[in-house]
Amino acid sequence: MPSAFPPDHREKSISRLKIEILDILIVGGGINGAGILRDLQLRAADTGEPLRAALIDKGHFASGTSGRNSQLIHGGLRYLKYFEFDLVREALRERATLLKIAPHLVEPLPMILPFYGGWIGGLWNRLFYGTGLRIYDRLAGELNIAQRRYLSRQEVRQIEPKLSTQGLFSAAIFSDCRIHSARLLLENLFEAAELGAPVANYIQAHGWERKGSLFHVKAEDRLTGAEFNIRAKRLVDARGPWDTQGSLRLVRGSHIVVPRLNASDHAIAYFGKDGRIIFVIPWGPEKSLSLVGTTDVDHRGSPDDVRISEDEVRYLRAAVRRLFPEAGDPAPLAAYSSLRPLVANEGKSATAASRSHKIWLDGDVLKIAGGKYTTYRAMSEEAVDLLKPDWKGRCRTAEAPLGGTGPHVLTTVDRRVVDWAIKREMVRRLSDLVFVSTYWGHERLLTEEVLRPVAELMSKRLPWSQRQIEEEIAATLELARMPG
Ligand SMILES: Cc1cc2nc3c(=O)[nH]c(=O)nc-3n(C[C@H](O)[C@H](O)[C@H](O)COP(=O)(O)OP(=O)(O)OC[C@H]3O[C@@H](n4cnc5c(N)ncnc54)[C@H](O)[C@@H]3O)c2cc1C
C-alpha cells in the first residue's frame, strides 16, 4: 500500500461529503481523529460491514499539537513523580506497540539523565530518579527497550565532553523513542483513505445541529470560501485544543531549535531545580541541530495564535547555558509551540496537571480529551469500542502494521517533491509543505530567500497569482516568527 492519499483525494472527498449520509464524521485531523478513523476503517474492512466514516480538518493535518510536540514516543518518566503509574504503564505498552507496527517511523532514543547537585544533592537525585528509573523499567517489563545503566562522572565526560560537569555527581542512561509525529499521523490518514474514507483538509466545521436522526454540520471550504452541509448520524469531536466548550485546560509548550549542542547520539533529559524536565534532542538534517523543550504555561489566548513568549525563550536558553556553558548561548534558529488539551483538574500547576485521558459519549457525539501522542492508538481503540460496541476485539490496530512503501518523510524540495506533496499529501499552502511534509520550518531559519523558490514551485502547480505567492510567504514567515 502506498504511503500517500489516492490521487486528487481532497476534491473527490468534498464531492462525497456534500451528498452522502455519513455514519460517522470526525471533526479534527490531529492524531486522535486520524487514529480513530484508521481504527474504524480497519474494523469495518475486517467485519465486512459497510461504514461511511469521514474526517475533516480546518487546517492542514498535523498543523495542531500533533505535529508540534517533542516528537517522543515515551512512557513519561516524569509522571512517576505524580504517581501516575497507570498512565506510564499504558504509555510504555504503547511505545512497544508503535515500535512494532511502525518501525520505519519510531526509533529508539537513548537518553542521558545527569544528576547535578554536588555530593549531597547529586546523591539525593541519583537515589530519587534512580528509583523512578527502576519503576520505569519494571513497568515496561519484557517490553523494555534497554535497562537503565549508570555512568560515573568520568564516563559522562567521555560520552558528552561538552555537557557541564559543574555540580555533576553521576548520570544514568535510559531509553525511549523518537518519532516524526506529523508523518505517523499522515500515515494513519493515508491508510484510512485507501480503505475508502473521505478525508479533506481546510474544511472547517462551524457548528452542528441535530435534525431528526441526523447531525447537520455547517462546513466551510477555507480555500474557496464555499459553504456546504455535511450530514452524519454520529460525530466525533476531535478538535483537541479547539474544543472550547469542554472543561479543557490549555497548557502551552514551546521548543527552540539551536545548533547541535551535544556530541553523542543520546538525548539529554535534564530535571531542573523547578522539577521540570527539559529534553535536548539531536535534531534536523544529519542531526546537525538540537531541539530543546519544553515549557508548561497556561494559555489564555486563542488556540489559533500559539507562539513562544520571550519568557519561554529565556527559560529554555537558561537551560542550554546551564547544560552546555561552552556553547556560548546560541540564538535559536527556529521555535514552535502548541497546546496540551488537558483534562482540567483544579489547583494543580500546569506541569503537574494530569496527562491522563477521558473519552465519553455526549449523546451521539464522541468526545476525547487529554492523553498523549504516545497513547493515541489505545485511545482510538477505546473510542471505537464506544462507538461500535459490536466490533469490540475485531482487527486490533496493535497487530496491524502501519504505513506502506516510501517515500516516508520528504527532506528535499524540488519540482518532483512539490508535485507529489500537492497530489498525494494534500498540500495546499506553503506552510503545509514547510511544516508537515518536510520539517523545514522546524529545522532552519526561515527567511524570504528560503521560502520564495518553494512558493514559486508551488504556484506553478496550484496555480497562485503573484499576490498569493507574497501572501503565502508572509503567512509562513508569521508562523515562524519569534519574539523580540
Ligand atoms: C509542547 C507539547 C509537546 C508534547 N510532546 C509530546 C511527546 O513528545 N510525546 C507524546 O506522547 N505527547 C506529547 N504531547 C501531547 C500530544 O502531542 C497531544 O496529546 C496530541 O497531539 C493531541 O492530539 P489531538 O488530535 O487531540 O489535537 P491536535 O493535534 O491539536 O488536533 C486537533 C485538530 O482539530 C482541528 N480542528 C479544530 N477545530 C476544528 C473545526 N472547527 N473544524 C475542523 N477541524 C478543526 C485542528 O485544526 C487540529 O488539526 C505534547 C504536547 C505539547 C503541547
Task: Characterise the protein shown here.
With 484 residues, the protein is an alpha+beta fold. The protein folds into 3 domains: 164 residues, FAD/NAD(P)-binding domain (3-Layer(bba) Sandwich), CATH 3.50.50.60; 197 residues, D-Amino Acid Oxidase, subunit A, domain 2 (D-Amino Acid Oxidase, Chain A, domain 2, 2-Layer Sandwich); 66 residues, no CATH class. It contains 12 helices and 18 strands. The strands form 2 sheets. Strands 3, 4, 5, 6, 11, 12, 13, 14, 15 and 16 form a 10-stranded mixed beta sheet that branches. The longest helix is centred in the first third of the chain and has 23 residues. It is globular, with a radius of gyration of 22 Å. The mean pLDDT is 93. The protein binds flavin-adenine dinucleotide. The site of flavin-adenine dinucleotide has 37 residues, from helix 2, strand 8 and strand 16.
Q: What can be said about this structure in brief?
A:
This protein has helices at 9-19, 31-47, 85-101, 118-140, 153-159, 181-194, 310-323, 376-387, 415-424, 430-437, 448-461, 466-480; strands at 21-27, 53-56, 72-73, 106-116, 149-151, 168-179, 199-200, 203-211, 214-221, 227-237, 248-259, 267-271, 277-283, 289-293, 297-298, 334-343, 357-362, 365-370. By secondary structure, the protein is of the alpha+beta class. The chain has three domains: 9-66 and 182-243 and 356-399, FAD/NAD(P)-binding domain; 81-180 and 247-343, D-Amino Acid Oxidase, subunit A, domain 2 (D-Amino Acid Oxidase, Chain A, domain 2), CATH 3.30.9; 415-480, no CATH class.
